[in-house]
Specification:
Largest sheet: 5 strands, antiparallel
Structural class: alpha+beta
Number of domains: 3
Low-confidence stretches: none
Shape: elongated
Number of helices: 8
Distance between the termini: 54 Å
Mean pLDDT: 88
């Protein structure tokens, strides 16, 4: 600035005048920027809250996106001879299970070898168990340890483990196969005679353990499998044999209906929390998103999903109303405890649907065009990286950032304006100071002369 103390020559209070001019020029813009900042911040806060409540609701929705989510079954076993799992769709019932034989792999041993450091020559060992096979190339310098390591490290090994046992008089290569089943005995062959001692070519009795299938009685019916895992012997049930039975195992399958009830109630509560938040955000006077078009559109679209039927469903359960979940006059979900006339209450309808139509209840939520799919698609349209709310949030953040630039521009403009004012008032200051000096001179010159 050219002048730092305006009015020093004239004695006029020019500093106050300049300050008043600058203030009058800057205040309207400052007020506008402050109001804009407050408005954007309030809207951003509302959108953030809206997005957060949608995400929280989506987390609950995700819990029932699988048809099996509502179908948790209780399995009770009288022994630990078997383990049992279901896919959630098995029919309730009681069964007896007896494990008569466990499946096992086979075990072979080589001929007696003078020492574990012995080598044999080069050639190929071929390992076979049923339809499984792989080859191992043996070098002339390979001793038992090297051969063992090559077998175990072979990338196409289907489950053969080689080990060395050093007895008092000799060493042996032991081969164990994890491939179980009556028809899957391990065989180690070679077309190279130098490797006969470590193959089964000329060994009279190389098999120490034969491969076996499992034999299990299920309700008196014999079931034979290559492994100890028996799938769908009981439909939708997997049985794993753990040990040979000394007494029958009783399996009881029943439906845990509380899981479905709890998940549906959690869905209702979570939606109502979202509805409450939307109601507060859209309140006409105090709402951060009062009269917001996206908020109104979301309310309408959510309501349509919740009250409409799922087009692809053909059973008794096609909508939330069919399982006792309705939308009240405030737009919230409820499972009423009171029936109207002879009609069941919402709680009674829900209990009946879970007990008698649980699969259909699961399809209502988790089918391709079910409630979960529709809600997820709707929320994604607003909440994902390209969603309506996310785009609004990005634009508002850019506007908020630009306010800082506007403040900087305002300060620069006001500095320039103040400099201009100071230059203009400096001429006034000089002129008034000159007039004052002339007036003082004239006043002095015109004073009457007094005589002593």
């Amino acid at each position: 600035m050219n002048i730092t103390s305006a009015g020093i020559g004239s004695g006029l209070d020019l500093e106050s005048i300049i300050t008043a001019f600058v203030t009058a020029e800057s205040v309207p813009t400052e007020i506008r920027l402050q109001e804009k900042e407050e408005r954007i911040s309030l809207e951003l806060s509302g959108i953030g809250s809206f997005k957060s409540s949608l995400s929280t609701f989506q987390t609950t929705v995700d819990k029932i996106k699988s048809p099996e989510a509502l179908s948790e079954q209780t399995l009770t076993l009288s022994t630990e001879d078997v383990s049992v799992t279901t896919n959630g769709s098995a029919s309730n019932g009681e069964f007896t299970i007896d494990v008569q034989q466990l499946a096992q792999g086979s075990r072979l041993q080589s001929s007696a070898i003078a020492s574990s450091t012995s080598s044999f020559g080069s050639g190929i060992l071929t390992f076979t168990a049923g339809s499984n096979t792989f080859d191992v190339a043996i070098d002339a310098s390979d001793d038992l340890s090297a051969i063992r390591d090559k077998v175990n490290a072979e990338s196409s090994n289907f489950g053969v483990t080689a080990n060395i046992v050093n007895s008092d008089g000799a060493s042996y290569l032991i081969y164990k196969s994890s491939i179980t089943g009556d028809a899957n005995n391990l065989n180690v062959s070679t077309s190279d005679a130098v490797l006969d001692a470590i193959s089964t070519n000329n060994i009279q009795d190389p098999v120490k353990d034969i491969a076996k299938s499992s034999i299990v009685l299920v309700d008196g019916f014999t079931v034979t499998r290559d492994t100890n895992e028996l799938k769908n012997v009981i439909e939708d049930v997997t049985i794993v044999a753990n040990k040979v039975s000394t007494s029958s195992t009783t399996l009881d399958i029943s439906q845990n209906q509380e899981v479905a009830k709890e998940l549906i109630n959690e869905f209702v509560d979570s939606y109502n929390a979202l509805a409450d938040n939307m109601l507060g955000l859209g309140a006409p006077r105090a709402g951060r998103l009062a009269f917001d078009p996206d908020l109104r559109a979301m309310k309408s679209q959510l309501n349509n999903i919740l009250i409409n039927t799922v087009d692809s469903l053909t059973g008794d359960v096609k909508s939330l109303t069919d399982i006792g979940v309705s939308v009240d006059k405030f737009g919230k979900l409820e499972i009423s405890s009171i029936g109207i006339g002879s009609l069941d209450s919402g709680q009674e309808k829900l209990a009946n649907a879970i007990e008698n139509n649980l699969i259909q209840v699961g399809e209502l939520f988790a089918s391709t065009d079910g409630i979960v799919s529709q809600l997820t698609s709707l929320i994604d349209n607003y909440n994902n990286s390209e969603g309506t709310l996310t785009q609004r949030q990005n634009f508002l953040n850019k506007d908020l950032s630009s306010i800082s630039d506007e403040y900087v521009n305002l300060e620069t403009r006001m500095r320039s304006y103040e400099d201009t004012l100071r230059k203009r008032f400096s001429f006034l200051d000089s002129a008034v100071a000159g007039y004052d000096a002339t007036a003082a001179f004239l006043e002095s010159a015109l004073q009457p002369v007094t005589k002593d």
